[in-house]
Structures
1.
Amino acid sequence: MAVATAIKVPYVNLGAQYADIKAEVLERIGALLDSGAFILGDELAQFEKSFAELCGTKYAIGVANGTDALFLSLMALGIGKGDEVITAPNSYLASGSSIALAGATPVFADVLDDMNLDPAAVRKAITSKTKAIIAVHLTGRPAHMSELIAIAKEHGLHLIEDCAQAIGAKLDGKHVGSFGTTGCFSLHPLKNLAAAGDGGVITTNDDALATQLLKARNHGMRDRDHSDFFSYNSRLDNLQAAILNVKMRELPRWTERRRAIAGMYQHGLAGVGDLLLPNDRGGERAVYHTFIVQTTKRDALKQFLADNGIDTKIHYPVPIHLQQAAAYLGYKCGDFPVTEKQTATILSLPVFAELTDEQVMHVISSIKAYFAS
Ligand SMILES: *Cc1c(COP(=O)(O)O)cnc(C)c1O
C-alpha cells in the first residue's frame, strides 16, 4: 500500500550534477573544439596529473574505459593463454571478461558478507597456473587488502585493483589504486567520477609498466613514428578529460555528500527488519558507489519502494560465473554460496550526491513502514 506522498526518488539524476557545473563545462568544451586538440592533448595530461595526485601514485594513464584498464594491465604484465587470474563472481562482468579477453582463464572465489573477496577463498583458488588476483573494491568499499597483499606476496602473484566503483576510497589513509601492481578505474557515466561517455584510468608506481601501458593504449607507439608492438587504440579523449578536469574539483564534495547520505541510512535504518547494512570498518573510507542493503524480503521491499516513488536497483542479479558467457568455464549454481545468496537479497538504494535530505528521509521512512507492516 502506497504511503500518500508526492516525493519521488530516482536512482540517479545525471542532469542534476551537470546543472551544477554547466557553464564551466561548456566553456571548456568550447575552447577545446576551437583548438581542435582532440587526441592526447593538454586536458588529458592535466587530468592524468591530478588523478595520480589524488591516488598518490606516480602515474595515471587515461584509457578508453574501465574494461580496457583491466585488460591492458593484464596484457602489459604478460598474462595470457594458460594463465589463471582470480577475481570475485559478484562483480560487474568486466572483472571477469577482461581476464578472458587477455586470453587467460577467469577463476572465481567467493566473497564475504561485505561483498568483497574472501581472502581464505582466494587462497584456496590458487593453482600452479595462477598469475594474478583482481581485487574488486565493490560498492566503493576497500577490499581486504592487507590479507590479499600477503597472499599475493607469498605466491608471487600480481595484485590488480579493480577500482571502478571506488574512486576516492581509502584504507588506512592510503588511496585505492595505490596498493596493487595497477589500479583500474572506470569513468562510465554511472561511476562516482563520470565522463560524458566512456573512459578509464590505470594507476601504477612502476616506471617500466607505465611506459608499457602508455604504448599499449596507443598502437604500441614509442614516439610519433615508431611502434614497438602491435596494440590497441584505447585512449581517453581530450574532450572527456576537459569535462573530467572540472568534475575532479567537485569530486571531494560529491564524495562527502555520498558518505553523508550513507550515514543517514546507517543511522535511520539500524535495527530495522532483517536489514544488513554496509558500514565502514576501522581504517576504511568507503565512497558508496552503491549503498546495498541485504534482506530476505528483497523483492517485496523493492516493489513497496517503487509504489512509494523510490527507484532501486540490483547490482547484480546474475553473478558472472552463472552468465551464459561463462558457461565454458564449467561453474554451476552452488559453487559460491555467499555470492548466490546475496544475489537474492541485495538491494541498491539511491545514494547520488544531489539527493536532498527530504528524499533520503523518504527512503528511510518508507523502508521502516514496509517492515512495520
Ligand atoms: C563499471 C565497472 C567496470 C567496467 O568499466 P567500464 O568503463 O564500463 O568498462 C569494471 N569493474 C567494475 C567493478 C565496474 O563497476
Note: Residues 238-268 form the longest helix (31 residues).
2.
Amino acid sequence: MRWNVAAAGLMGLFAQSATAIKMDIDNDQSVKDAAATIAYGMMSYYTGNQTGDTPGNLPDPYYWWEAGAMFGALVDYWWITGDTSYVEATSQAIVHQASETRDFMPANQSRTSSNDDVGFWTLTAMSAAEDAFPDPPEDQPQWLALVQAVFNQMASRWDDINCGGGLRWAINDFQTGKDYKNSISNGLFFNLGARLSRFTGNSSYGDWATRTWDWERSINLITDEYDVKDGAHFDVTTHVCRNDSGPHVWSYNVGVFLQGAAFMYNVTTGEEQNTWKTRVDGLLGSIESKFLTNDTKIIKEWYCESGFTDRGHPYQCNIDQQTFKGYLLRWLSSTSQVAPFTYERINPWIRSTAIAAAAVCTGPVGAAAPQVDSGGIQPGFRGIDGTACGFKWAEPFDGWSGVGAQMNALSAVMYTLTHKGLGKAAKGPATEKLGGTSKGDPGAGVTDPASRGGLAALKPITTADRVGAGIVTAILAISIVGGSVFLTI
Ligand SMILES: *[C@@H]1O[C@H](CO)[C@@H](O)[C@H](O)[C@H]1NC(C)=O
Ligand SMILES: *[C@@H]1O[C@H](CO)[C@@H](O)[C@H](O)[C@H]1NC(C)=O
Ligand SMILES: *[C@@H]1O[C@H](CO)[C@@H](O)[C@H](O)[C@H]1NC(C)=O
Ligand SMILES: *[C@@H]1O[C@H](CO)[C@@H](O)[C@H](O)[C@H]1NC(C)=O
Ligand SMILES: *[C@@H]1O[C@H](CO)[C@@H](O)[C@H](O)[C@H]1NC(C)=O
Ligand SMILES: *[C@@H]1O[C@H](CO)[C@@H](O)[C@H](O)[C@H]1NC(C)=O
C-alpha cells in the first residue's frame, strides 16, 4: 500500500515540531478524538458568539452560506459522536440566521443570498430535523418548519419560461445569476424535496424532486454519463437556454444530487425505485471517475487537483470551492445509510480519505491558505498547534488551512463512524414517524411576496438598493457559492 508508506513518511516529517493527529482508523475512540481536535480547530475561526458579533456569521472573507454549511457539519458531528460541545453555539446560530421571517432570508444578507446560499442554511435545518438535534423553545423557529418555508418559496420561484423550468441562481433582480440556471440551486431544491418526502411521508415533495431531476436531464446539466455540469445561461429575450457550462464539474453538484437520489430510492418502490437505483449507481460512477484518486481512492476536488491551468497558472480552488469535497463526503455517508446497497462501495472511499485527511492535519498555529483571486486572506489557524489541516490529501501538508480544510477533514474522519453506533447516527436519519421530534408547518413561506413567479414579481428596486447593489455585485462576481461564479466571470 503505497499510501501508507507516504503517510508514515509525512507523519515523521511534521511530528518532530508538532502535535499532529495520531488516529487509529480501527479504534472508534481514537477516531472520535481526532474528530474532536479537528472540530475544535474549525470552531477556533468562529467569532459569532462573542459580544458584539452576530451569531451565525464567520469573519471575513468567509461568506454567510459557508457558516451555514459549517453548522450543518456540527449538527452531524453531535449526531455521530455524541459530543455536546458545540450544540449551544450551533442552535443559537441557526435560530438567529433563520431571522424574523423564519426562512433564512435575513435582511442583513439579502445582497449575498441567492438560492444556493439560502439552500445551504436550509440543509443544516434539514439535518437538524433528521438528526433529532435538540429542538428550540416553542416560540422559536423549528427545524422542519424552516425547511418547509424555504422549500415552498423555492417551488414558487420555479421558472418555466426560461430553459423550460428550473430555478435561477439569483433570487433578487440586483444579483448576479439572473440569467443563470445552476445545478447547485436546483440540486439543493431537489435534495430538500427528496428528504422532506421521506421525513414527512408527503409525496408532493418527491414529485418536485422528480420534476427537477427530469428538467436537469432535459437540458443536459446531468449528462448521459451522470456528470453534473455547473449550469446554463439563457437569453433573456428569447428565453432559449444555452449549452455553455463548459467541461468543469464540481464535487458538490454531483454530491447534492446523489444524496437526493438515494432518498428517492428510499421512499419509492418497484419500477420507480429501480430507476432511482440506476441513477444512484450512475452518479457514484461519475464520482469515482472524477473525484477519487485512481489507485488510492482518496476524494479530491477534480478541477483544482488535476493540474488544469487557468490563465497560465494551475487552477486553484477559491474559498468557496475549498469546501466542496467536505459536502461530497457528507452526502456519500448519508447515501450509504438510506440506500444501503451502496455501503460496500462507499465505505472504503470514506475510510481511505479519512486516513489521508487526518495525516495532513499537521500545520502550525497561524497557518492560512494563500489568497486566490480577490477572495481575501483567510484568518490564521487558532486551534491546537500542529493540527491545522491541509486542503489536498494525496500529498504532504500543503498549507492551505482554513474553515474549509477543517470542515473537509472533520467530515472525512467523522463519517467513518456513522454506522458505528457512537451517537444516534447508526439508526439512520429520523422521520416524523420514526425518531423525529421537529415540528413542521406545511404552509410556511408561501406568502413571501418576493418569490412569486421568479424575478418578475419582485418589489421595485429603490435607489438605495441600486447603490448597495453595485458593491454587492462586485463581491458576488468574485466568489459567492463557488463553481457558478468561476464560470460566469
Ligand atoms: C463560542 O463558542 C466556542 C466554541 O463552542 C467556545 O469555545 C467559546 O467559549 C464561545 N464563546 C462565548 C463567548 O460564548
Ligand atoms: C443584522 O445586523 C445587525 C447589526 O450588525 C445585528 O445586530 C443583527 O443581529 C443581524 N441580524 C442577523 C439575522 O444576522
Ligand atoms: C404536502 O406538501 C405540499 C407541498 O408540496 C403541501 O402543499 C401540502 O399541504 C402537503 N400536504 C400535507 C397533508 O401536509
Ligand atoms: C454541448 O456542448 C458540448 C461542448 O461543450 C458538446 O460536447 C455537446 O454535444 C453539446 N450538447 C448539445 C446538446 O448541444
Ligand atoms: C485516473 O487515470 C486516468 C488515466 O490515466 C486519468 O485520465 C484520470 O484523470 C485519473 N483520475 C483521477 C481522478 O486522477
Ligand atoms: C431506508 O433507510 C433506512 C435507514 O435510514 C434503511 O434502514 C432502509 O433499509 C432503507 N430502505 C431501503 C428500501 O433501502
Note: The two ends are 42 Å apart (CA to CA).
